[in-house]
Amino acid sequence: MSDALQSCAGWLEARTARHDLRSRWFGAGRTVMAGAQLSVLLLTPIKALLIPVVAMGEYPRCDGVRAASALCIGNDSVGAEPRRWLLVVIFAVVASGYRPRWTAIPHAWATYSVAVSIAVPDGGESIGMIMALLMTPIALADDRTWHWQAPTTETGRSWQTVTFAAFLAIRVQIAYLYLDSAVSKFGVADWANGTAEYYFLRDNMFGVARPWDSLFLSMSKNSLVVVALTWGALVIELAIGVCVLASDRWRKAALVMDIVLHGSIILTMGLWSFATVMIGSAIVCATPQRKPPQPLTAPVMTAPLVTTA
């Protein structure tokens, strides 16, 4: 048993010793996710985001833990517009890449505020909140001025262990999301028989919009195309769920599939913020492990051969 524990400890030490997520990959994923939520706040009137919902009452809801939301600051003494601009500033700074360590907690707070306070979420807000919370330890360990820069310092061993655990949790979370989404669809008749995309494309709320409507609606009249689109989405979701748990190369493959899947959703159904948050999450998951630095070897000095007569 002791040998097994020592082996596991050795493996963990080897993994964490070269674990450093301070790269442009992590920065790009963080920027994409923050940019998605920034677009929602900039392009949607705050009244539309906080519209009253039947049986749910007025928004923002500030009861219980929701009172910690930025959209609940000051109760009635502060209007909705100043609160919105506070969130806009936070997301803009995060998206710029400035001081990840300083913006880690404000980013988590801002995503929480949007997720629990707006009346018409599309799903991307909740995923963005979970991702921001899981990325907080990683960002706190990031001492760069901009997350686009290469690191110039070494990360302490404690931070390496913490960020390794956080990165693993992120990948498990994204894998579960995609695998659960795919498996649960097999229990729905339209997905199981391959006709779901036919109905989605014609949905009054989420159906395909211009300028792609005539193309996709025409294509969906072919049964083989409909089945390929429907089951193809399930296969891609399953593949993404498996690949994000694998090596660097497979995680990059998952990113490519994620862009194809959610790019198609953007073209056909819209849902820009949801799709962009998911693509940003896939970018974070694709962050490669840093290669350990090669030790510098000094030239070997040999003493001259002295011979005696």
Write out key terms for the chains shown:
309 residues; mainly alpha; globular
Brief account:
With 309 residues, this protein is mainly alpha-helical. 63% of the residues lie in helices and 0% in strands.
Question: How would you portray this structure in words?
Answer:
The protein is mostly helical and 309 residues long. It has 13 helices and no strands. It has helices spanning 2-17, 24-43, 46-49, 80-96, 100-117, 124-140, 157-185, 189-192, 196-201, 213-219, 223-243, 248-269, 272-285. Helix 6 runs antiparallel to helix 7, helix 7 (157-185) runs antiparallel to helix 11 and helix 7 (157-185) packs across helix 13 (272-285). It starts with a helix and ends in a 24-residue tail after the last helix.
